[in-house]
Design brief:
By secondary structure, the chain is an all-alpha fold. It has one domain. It is 80% helix and 0% strand. It is built from 4 helices and no strands. Keywords: Membrane, Plasmid, Transmembrane, Transmembrane helix.
Length: 76
């Protein structure tokens, strides 16, 4: 029973809009810091590093879509 409760908590947490916007903030901050410092993090391929900005924008879009979905559900 506790395992099912933990799974429900995990799903709710993953579907929360703030989780995605926080992930987008962290990815964007790391990417921007590396770009400003003109340093590529060791062990990260250049092709993966160049995806930092699009990944952060994607996280923000998912977060705002979940927020809009939540607000639409609450207004009904």
């Amino acid at each position: 029973m506790r395992r099912l409760a933990n799974r429900r908590w995990s799903v709710r947490r993953l579907a929360h809009w703030r989780t995605w916007t926080n992930a987008g903030t962290v990815v964007f901050s790391g990417w921007l810091l590396a770009v400003i410092a003109e340093v590529q993090p060791p062990g990260v391929p250049a092709s993966l590093f160049s995806l930092g900005m699009p990944i952060s924008v994607g996280f923000f879009l998912v977060g705002f879509a979940l927020l809009a979905w939540r607000q639409a559900a609450e207004s009904e």
